[in-house]
Amino acid sequence: MTRWFALGLWLALAPSPAMAGEGLRKAALVLLWTPQAQFAGYYVALEKGIYRKHGIDLAIVPGGPGRPAADYLGDGRADFAVLWLSTALLRRGAGVPLVNIAQIAQRSSMVLVARKSAGIRMAADLGGQKVGLWGGDLAIPARAFFDRHGLTVEAVPQSATVNLFLRGGVKAASAMWYNEYHLLLNAGLDPDELTVFRLEEGSLNIPEDGLYALEKDIGRDPDLADAFVRASLEGWNDAFADPQEALDIVLRAMREAKIPANRVHQAWMLARMEEAIRPAGRMTGVLSKEDYQAVAGELQRTGLLREAPSYGSFVRPPRAHP
User: What residue ranges define each of the domains in the chain, with the CATH number in brackets?
Assistant: First the structure.
């Protein structure tokens, strides 16, 4: 058993300090997007009273258009946020003193998808092609991939749907393995028809979902940050232990938010999230120094980040309660 595996199990199972009679600490978590299985662990922890067991009266704030998670954290509208590592580093470089308190996703789930019938079978075939890219920070992994392969592409803004790719408006599209890729399969495409470029492969892994808080908030109440991480990891463990229960909870949250809910798609998403969160069947909750240095170095090399904070100042590993 590795040291980080043992830590992950301990954090997930260890109770928080006794809170009976002290009342619950109120806190808000802002997500990157609307309710879906990408965030199942947090909804499970909320629904099953895990946050309350750890002394927290938590409110989950959906993200999405008009609700940038980094802004909600930075201006105090949320105490915790789910952010991609690349986004968090850029915000830190811009002066927002945020800290990684747990790295949930250990592997990148971002892919580029192309039709083999378009003559795209290897990375070099993307050169000069129209490629759908999401805006802002979400394009960083794809652009790093192009740069690594010495490619110049014609970037086309991509919305939250895969319609542009399906209609032939681009030769390749951005997708998350747990989401848009499955939507393409549901639209009738066969996996054998597609060329998939996993952006995690090679020397650059840009892990996505991590949990972040502001330095000042951690300093003011470190126990709250620790309890929040423990409860969140416990929620993810429960979600993977009973995926059908987790799907029931997620689908209920989606319906309450008036979002179309498809159980088959959400089941695919939850299974793929487990692959990203605990590769080889283990969940650590820790951002590795190697991944941090690789991503920070890439952002610096491309001029997006002038100076990277030290690993020790940016990452606060989850702490087991004594």
Answer: 3-107+206-314 (3.40.190.10), 110-198 (3.40.190.10)
